[in-house]
Amino acid sequence: MAPKSSAATKQHATPAPAAAPEASPAAAGNALQSLLNAYNQNTSPRLKLIDAFLVFLMISGVLQFLYCVLVTNFPFNAFLAGFGSCVGQFVLTASLRSQVNPANRNEFKDISPERAFADFALGSIVLHFFVYNFLG
Amino acid sequence: MATKAYTLPTNVAPETVANIRSLVRIVSLALISAAAISSRLFAVVNFESIIHEFDPWFNYRATKLLAAKGFYEFWNWFDPTAWYPLGRVVGGTIYPGLMATSGVIYNVLHALNLPVDIRNICVLLAPGFSALTAWSTYMFTKELKDESAGLLAAAFIGIVPGYISRSVAGSYDNEAIAIFLLMFTFYCWIKALKTGSAFFGTLAALFYFYMVAAWGGYAFITNMIPLHALALILMGRFSSRLYVAYSSWYAIGTLASMQVPFVGFQPVRTSEHMAALGVFGLLQIIAFAELVRSHVSSKQFQTLLYASVVAMGLVGFFGIVGLTYKGWIAPWTGRFYSLWDTGYAKKYIPIIASVSEHQPTAWPSFFMDLHMLIFLFPAGVIMCFSKLRDEHIFVIIYSVVASYFAGVMVRLMLTLTPVVCVAAAVALSSLLDTYIDPTEPVPEEIEPTEAEATPQDPAKKSKKAAPAGNPTSLGEYFSRFTGNTNKPRGIFGINNRLIVLFNTFGMLVFFVIHCTWVTSNAYSSPSVVLASTGADGNPHIIDDFREAYYWLRQNTPEDAVVMSWWDYGYQIAGMANRTTLVDNNTWNNTHIATVGKAMSSSEEVAYPILKKHDVDYILIIFGGLLGYSGDDINKFLWMVRIAQGVWPDEIQEPNYFTKQGEYRVDDRAPDTMKNSLMYKMSYYRFNELFGGQQAMDRVRGQQMPKQGPTLDYLDEAFTSENWIVRIYQVRKEDILGRDLKIANAFEQGRKRKKTKPPVRRRALA
């Protein structure tokens, strides 16, 4: 459910100011603008690469979910496997992102970036082993 | 400088101390494993290497097939001899973890040219895994406190009767490996949470998968971990480590759990699994919000974000509720309702309530199963509060939840036992730490200055202050409450130390004696073979069950259908290798009710039912002669109740009681009771044993009527040595087309009654 919910949060953030009386639309626009600016300035290219992958996974997951809801869920196991691979890969990549993020250095004391990548690789292999088995 | 109660040698190198420590740890763990395994061998020593009880017989039968024909045959196994005439798809209706484990061990041993019999592997699997449980409990407790607490916890779980009751040699059931998997999954989870490592998250998911494959109790993990995560979020302890640990566990673990055919799509379709999904979604939202917050500090934006997070959470919650309402997500199953409402099962699902291990726990069994640990348990939980790291919260939640469940159902004592051992070990080890530590408290007059004067020596300070507790601990709050914060705290002199240590040692000795006694006396009986002690003290083995099952195997055609109450289905299939109508799988309530109806109605009503189901033999358990209380007459009311659930017009429970509401089998028993098939089969020819004197039922303690029951539609085929098992053959229909009752009367030379309708065969068509 991760891609869906995160995406929804983003969409939700834009129309909500109309409901809140003290926040004008312009202020919200400014806030979004400042968020984008801050993101562009403070994020290293490596993290941006990871973020691009995350966005791709999210789009892929949303598409599969829409297909399941709108067209058919017939091979339900295949849908679950495909959707699960997107969600699983998403959270593993997000974990990798937070582990290599220098801002979180003090949280992950015993995990070096190399170790984080090894964990990520192992988790992905295990995940896709089950995905492959479940595709049917 | 602080004085010492006794002096320690100072001329030892720190490396030597560390080496000796680790050596002692390894040796202790090895000894604990040996103790855990050997105390479970009472069953083999006292009786023999035999599979116990009921369910293990099925597991054993399935494992034999797996070992003989390979995994694919086992996976696709359709068993036509169970639930006759329906059959059972075994591969898709079991948790295959246990059989797969034994199968792997069997194949590995055979590959090493060690031709071990599959039966011995099955018998010794549970003791073997108990050693692994001890080890994983050690690892778990080590994360909570330290190695010494870990060793204590391992020793406790190794010999505590609450766990031994499910893991003696021969008790080849899912719980045998499940407790190890439970503890190890929890250990991986704690470790993943502590370090924020996706590796341990993945490992937790893999062991979770193994657990799902092994035991239906996996739902406990499925709900414990989300509950812990949710508690951490609500306490404001969200961290990236929590995100990494939970997400990697859930994403991989859920997908993995769906690989087990018996579980299938349940993780996305049933309410039991929705908590995990909900917490997973919540974590994603919170993690995203945290990420955004790290980039902007605008106040209004944060308010906005907060509002949208709450809104998303509510939308998700109502979404799940709505989906449940529309039927996309299955609501809670009956077994789960019976956990919340203890009267539920008795009202709506008698088949669940009829199982003795689903009854509420009686309080003496807490002491019997846990002995002194049950007193140390609360102390250990309180000590968790004084540190309150993330893993301590886990233990607190676990102990609260498991205590409740253990009170509701006897069998869930098993899930309580590990946390009791862990908490008790933490408590006891803190006690020992305090009293073995040689540091003497500093006398009162220099204490106030020292409190400020020695901040540069924090290690020594905290060690000394351990009994008083650090500023956040409960002890500090208590001492503030009593107003004597500045008093030095600690233990003076060696005598006080020795008194406490000696008492603790005594308690541990009693614990070991109690555990050994309970194990050897209460939990090591295979229940297939009974033991009694004669007047002269000689043991006497009662082997009626196997005698009867082997009689069936030797003397009946291979395709004979045997009807019995469902308790004995697996044993008949496993030992007698005959087709059964119902067994311990209990998946089809109507089929069980049919058997219940046949047992509780009169011969004339039961005979067509028997004929329709091709029943050749009926097997019942009768303890009246020997005083064996677990017999079918004592279970009879459940048969009536279950049958009444399906045929309320034909079977009514009150008819089986006397006018005064008593359950009797003697002269005063009501006619419905006396005419029921079960009553007749149990007491048929029972009078003859007593040679003219009045017969006595030793279980019910009642005098039997002078005139015993007669049977027209059944023949007695076999009765075991002590009358525990009685087998009846269903008569063939009369060749002349007469009703069997009339034919019987004719053979005995009596006249046919004119009033009876001549032919009753129509009922069969």
TrEMBL record, chain A:
Pfam assignment, any one: DAD
Entry keyword set: Endoplasmic reticulum, Membrane, Transmembrane, Transmembrane helix
InterPro entries named among the record's database cross-references: DAD/Ost2
Start-end of Low complexity biased regions: 7-22
Gene Ontology CC entries for this record: oligosaccharyltransferase complex
Regions that span the bilayer: 49-72, 116-135
Record's function text: Subunit of the oligosaccharyl transferase (OST) complex that catalyzes the initial transfer of a defined glycan (Glc(3)Man(9)GlcNAc(2) in eukaryotes) from the lipid carrier dolichol-pyrophosphate to an asparagine residue within an Asn-X-Ser/Thr consensus motif in nascent polypeptide chains, the first step in protein N-glycosylation. N-glycosylation occurs cotranslationally and the complex associates with the Sec61 complex at the channel-forming translocon complex that mediates protein translocation across the endoplasmic reticulum (ER). All subunits are required for a maximal enzyme activity.
Official protein name in the record: Dolichyl-diphosphooligosaccharide--protein glycosyltransferase subunit OST2
Organism expressing this protein natively: Phanerochaete sordida
TrEMBL record, chain B:
Top-level taxon of the source organism: Eukaryota
Record-annotated Oligosaccharyl transferase STT3 N-terminal domain positions: 26-423
Pathway(s) served: Protein modification; protein glycosylation
Enzyme class: transferase
InterPro entries named among the record's database cross-references: Oligo_trans_STT3, STT3-PglB_core, STT3_N
Gene Ontology biological process terms in this record: post-translational protein modification; protein N-linked glycosylation via asparagine
A GO MF term: metal ion binding
Location in the cell: Endoplasmic reticulum membrane
Keyword set includes Transferase: yes
Sorted UniProt keywords: Endoplasmic reticulum, Glycoprotein, Glycosyltransferase, Magnesium, Manganese, Membrane, Metal-binding, Transferase, Transmembrane, Transmembrane helix
Cofactor dependency: Mg(2+); Mn(2+)
Chain ranges passing through the membrane: 26-47, 89-109, 121-141, 147-164, 176-192, 198-221, 242-262, 274-292, 304-325, 366-385, 392-410, 416-436, 498-519
Record's GO cellular component terms: oligosaccharyltransferase complex
Disulfide bond among keywords: no
Region annotation Disordered: where it falls in the sequence: 440-471
Catalysed reaction, written as an equation: a di-trans,poly-cis-dolichyl diphosphooligosaccharide + L-asparaginyl-[protein] = N(4)-(oligosaccharide-(1->4)-N-acetyl-beta-D-glucosaminyl-(1->4)-N-acetyl-beta-D-glucosaminyl)-L-asparaginyl-[protein] + a di-trans,poly-cis-dolichyl diphosphate + H(+)
EC number(s) given by UniProt: 2.4.99.18
Residue span(s) of domain STT3/PglB/AglB core: 559-609
Role of this protein: Catalytic subunit of the oligosaccharyl transferase (OST) complex that catalyzes the initial transfer of a defined glycan (Glc(3)Man(9)GlcNAc(2) in eukaryotes) from the lipid carrier dolichol-pyrophosphate to an asparagine residue within an Asn-X-Ser/Thr consensus motif in nascent polypeptide chains, the first step in protein N-glycosylation. N-glycosylation occurs cotranslationally and the complex associates with the Sec61 complex at the channel-forming translocon complex that mediates protein translocation across the endoplasmic reticulum (ER).
Family assignment from sequence similarity: Belongs to the STT3 family.
Name of the protein described by the UniProt record: Dolichyl-diphosphooligosaccharide--protein glycosyltransferase subunit STT3
The species this protein was found in: Phanerochaete sordida
Lineage: Eukaryota, Fungi, Dikarya, Basidiomycota, Agaricomycotina
